[in-house]
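Standup notes
- DV: blocked on the single-chain target, sequence here:
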Amino acid sequence: MTETIRETKLVQYLSEAYAKEKELEATLEAHIAITTRRPYKKRLQQHLKDTKAHGRALERRVKKVGGGSPQLADKVVGRAAGKAKALARGPVQAVRGAGAAERMLKNAKTEYSNEHEEIATYTAIETLAGRLGDKETAKLARDIRRDEERMAKFLAGQIPVLTKAVVTEEVPASERRASRPAGTRSRSGASRSAGSRSSGSGSGTKARSSGSRSRSGSASARSKPKRSR
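- DV (later): unblocked, structure below
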């Protein structure tokens, strides 16, 4: 049976999402293998299960909408290509940075970026399906998007934790506090010194002025003629 333009567009968007999910399966597996922090690793493992479930749900939906498998060969990145790309990326990320915390931080930033790409993808699918009257596809996209949003929220909280771990692991304790910028103390001291001089100058001026008035008054008193008796 010939697909309608409506069905073709739905299958295209669903297939693109499916290809991304299959790519991320391999990426997550590579990241989990080098993750040592237990809470972070446990969350990645759960998200890997979710990602696999998303792929299966998308594949079923594509078959229901278009009567075939996701169009990975000609419209989007193929399954083999996606896995190869992800697996190639894993070892590269494994050698980034100077330590374990740095590697995990870089992976978390990559995952955070991927989650937002997926959020955008499922937002588009939900909107498309809504406009085309496909309530089942819209609901599927909405449910998966919420999973991605929860993962993105977790990663947003994890990135500062991992960054602090990098500081602890790689930066000496003596260098972790923000040091005073060079010249700040001397400028401050100079300001205080200048203020002192200004104050002293003002006091001297007042003293000289007072002295001048005193001398002037004495001279005036001496110059007044004595009244005759």
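- Follow-up: The two ends are 142 Å apart (CA to CA).
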